[in-house]
Fold DUF6534 domain-containing protein.
Amino acid sequence: MPPSDAGFLELNFWGFLVSLVLLGVSICQAYLYFTKYNDWWPLKLLVLSLLTLDISATFLWSFIIHKILILSWGSPKISYGGKTLLAVESVVTILVTVIAQLFFAYRVYLVGGRKLRIVPILVVAFALLGWGSGIARVILMVVTPMSQMVSTKMKVVNTLEGGFAAVSDIIATVAMVVILNSVLRTLLIYTFNRGIVVTAAQVSMVVLYLCGPQKFYWNPVHMCLTKLYVNTLLAMLNARAQLRSQAASNSTHELSTKSATEAQFANSRSVVLTHEMRSTMERSRVRSVLDISTTSSGTPSEYVSQGDATTTTADSSVPKPVPVHSIENIHLETQ
C-alpha cells in the first residue's frame, strides 16, 4: 500500500522548500568563488560541474512534484509516479556525492603528503564503493516494479550506499582534524563542520529509510543531499581569503614580541628574520591546505605539507618557504 497522499506530499513540500533555499546559497557561494578567485581551469570546471548538477537535481525534483500534484492528481498511485525521473535524479545525486568526496580526498593527500598516503586511498575506496552501490540501486529502481521497491535487495543497496559514503566522509574529516594544528584552527572548524553535516545527512537518510521505506521520511534528506555537498565544498574554497588574512595577522601579532627580543640579543653579524618572511611562511601553510594557484605556464602550483616542512612544485626560481618549526632558530648570516 502506498503511503497516505497527505503525508507524502507534506514531506516532499518541506524537503523541496529547504532544497530551494540551499540551492540559492549554492548559487551565491559559486558567484563569490568565480568573482573572487582566479584558480586554474580544472578547479573552476569542477565547481561549475557541481553547480550544474545541483541545479539539475532541483529541476528534476520540480518535474517529479509537478507529475505528482498535477499530472497524477487523484490517481491511487500518486506517490509512485515518475520512477524514471527519480532514477535520473538519483544518478545526479550519486555523481555530486562521489565528485565532492574525491576532491576532499585530494585535499587530504596534499596536506598529509606521502606520510598519510593510506588515508586518501581509503577515502577514495569507500567513495567508489558508495558510488557502485548507488549505481546498483538505480538499476534496481529501473528494473524492479514499484510494488517491490521495499525488497531486501533495495534495502541492502540503499544501506551500503549511504554507509560507504558516510565512512568516506568520516575518514576524510578525522584525517584533516588530526593533520591541522592550532595555527589553522579556523580551517579545522570549517573541516569539522563539513564532516558533521554531510555525515549526519548520509546516516540519517539510511536510518530513516530502514525505519520506514514506504513512508518516505528519508526523501527530504535525499532532496537536500547534493546541496549540502556543494555548499560545504564551496564554503571551504571561499574561506581561503579570510584564512590567509587571519594567518598573516596572527603571524605579525604573535611574532612581533619575539622579533624585538631576538633583535636585542642578535650579534652584529646576524640579521633577524623579518615579519614579512614570517607572514609568507604562515600564508604558505594555509595555501598548502586549500589553495591551488597557477604558474606562468598555466600549470597548477600545488603546495604539499609534510609534517612541519612545506615544499612547492611551482617554478624553481621561486624560493622555497622555510620550515615553520625552525622560525625561532633562524638567523641570516652576513659576510
The CA atoms of residues 184 and 199 lie 22 Å apart. Residues 257-276, 292-335 have pLDDT under 50 and may be disordered. The longest strand covers residues 300-306.
